[in-house]
Amino acid sequence: MNKDQQISSVKIKQVSLLAIILVLTALICFNLALFIPSVLGAITIYVVCRKYNFYLQEEKKWKPWASSLVLMLASLIILILPIYFIGDLLIDKLGNAQAYMTKFNVFLEKIHSYIYSKIGFDILSKENMVKLRSSVGQFSTKALSGTFNTLTVVLSMYFILYFMLEKPRLFEKILSSSAPLKRANVSLIGEKLRKLIMANAIGIPVVAMGQGLVALIGYFIFGAPSPVLLFALTAAASMVPVVGAAIVYIPVCIFMIAEGDTGHGLGLAAYCLIIVGLTDNLLRFTLLKKLEDIHPLNTVFGIIMGMSLFGFMGLIFGPILISFTLLLIQVYRNEFSDEDTPPDLHLPDKDDELEEKINLIV
């Protein structure tokens, strides 16, 4: 073998050290898998509260412990309790899995029979009906079982969060110095991650709660069955792009019509299509567009993965993980490509922000 073809000792050491780091990281993650949602949650809330934490500690000269506790309490009331309320409501209503599946089967059969009698189209064959029931049962059981661990996740999350908020400069210094990346890419990850977290932790829950509350009014007005349960299901379904809340209220409307309550069923359908749909568009095109434009597929696959891994907390963590993985792929290309920073990956500077504000005004 020629000297030119020999692997340098530096590369051997580099690969060996990287392998050791990966093995140790995998070992740590495997044994502390229970706390992964807690770490993700702590990082999420830290990013949301970061600006206010620096303001209280550095400008208002608050004690670190005081600002940390105040922000933790505020995040608990504003961010965690609404999500926990929806999850707890679904657990309470759907806690008896066998009774729930019996009602769901009756509900599904009623819709199927009505559509078949009206248009003669077998929308779901018997085999597909069985598969759908089985899939819904397995998914709901897995999601609910994951949610039972929510209290443990929240307690450990706030334990971790306290130490992040108490010494934020030290925490960020450790993260930035530990990242084996160029400084520009570290800044890129920080900026993009902040936008992703704000969009998922603030934007998506606000849209979900907004649609759920507006739909709840319609459920009460038109006498839908179990309106409070439908509120929780609508809020959860509204987080799914494209189909959104329609996956809940359209079957409910068909069910009401099939039960003979045609007037209320059609009224609820019109209300949801117009009012709830308008609420969805209004919130998405105002709030979410200002935060970060997340591709719908990221949200869909993120929610599926997140619900399976983390229960209802995965509604937020799942899309963040998918988006962050794609961001790391972009950073990898930027870090090791021969080109300079690609145009779509550059960090916004003051001129960019000024130009963006001018465009918004125009």
TrEMBL record:
Regarding the membrane, this protein is recorded as:
Multi-pass membrane protein
Answer yes or no on keyword Transmembrane helix.
yes
Keyword check for Endoplasmic reticulum:
no
Q: Which cellular component terms (GO) are annotated to the entry? A: membrane
In terms of InterPro entries, this protein maps to: AI-2E-like
Q: Which residues cross the membrane?
A: 15-48, 69-87, 143-165, 197-222, 228-258, 265-283, 303-329
Arranged from A to Z, the UniProt key words for this protein are:
Membrane, Transmembrane, Transmembrane helix
Query: Where in the cell is the protein located?
Result: Membrane
Pfam families the record matches: AI-2E_transport (PF01594)
Q: Name the principal localization, coarsely classed.
A: membrane
Q: Which family does it belong to?
A: Belongs to the autoinducer-2 exporter (AI-2E) (TC 2.A.86) family.
Q: What is this protein called?
A: Predicted PurR-regulated permease PerM
Q: Which organism is the protein's source? A: Chryseobacterium soldanellicola
